[in-house]
Amino acid sequence: MPKKTTTEREQTVSEPARRNPTQQRSRERQERILAVATKLIAAKGSDSLKMSEIAERSEISIGSLYQYFPDKSSVIRTLAERFNTQSRRCIESALVAVQDAQGLREAYSDLLEQYYDIAQAEPVMRDIWSGMQADKQLLALELEESRVAGRLLADAMLRVFPGSDTQQVADTAFLIWQLGEATMRLAITCVPEEGRRLFEAFKRMSLAEVMAPAKALINSGSSEVDPAVE
What we know:
By secondary structure, this protein is mainly α. It is built from 11 helices and no strands.
């Protein structure tokens, strides 16, 4: 069994326990709580989110609310985890079948478009992301998601460019996704026209980095370069 990282061990110890409902009625109550929290965050921002108001709007006692979520951070974390799960499915689906340079270019471009569409459809994520920046555990969650997405992208890049520097590709892919998170937050905060321009700028710059190993291999005269790149 793989050993847990230091970050994982710290989260296991310090993160308040959350109730995982098994009965239908409990699951429905949890969904109602999260729906209320989402509306409150969208209306007032994550900083103004109060457990007492969530309980009141959900028509449950504050004691019942704490059985599901011990604090505000656990509510935000659950919403963020759901968004992350959706994002990860998109990433895996887009990159799993990549085998050549053209496929990588198209898959990465399509993936960014999907990710942007999700962010646009769920503007409340801007405020959830904001709430995560002020909480070390939630910030660690975002960082780990960037690492996971980065590994998926790096794996695809190394399949296409097997002669590349593995560590350099891994660092580039991780940085791309971390910067991508920041870009999406910025884009959905701006007016639509400006947000789209910023998104397109990131797409153009990051795509150049994703395809950069091809240039390095061409310059080195490697025989492993995909002919489609040249």
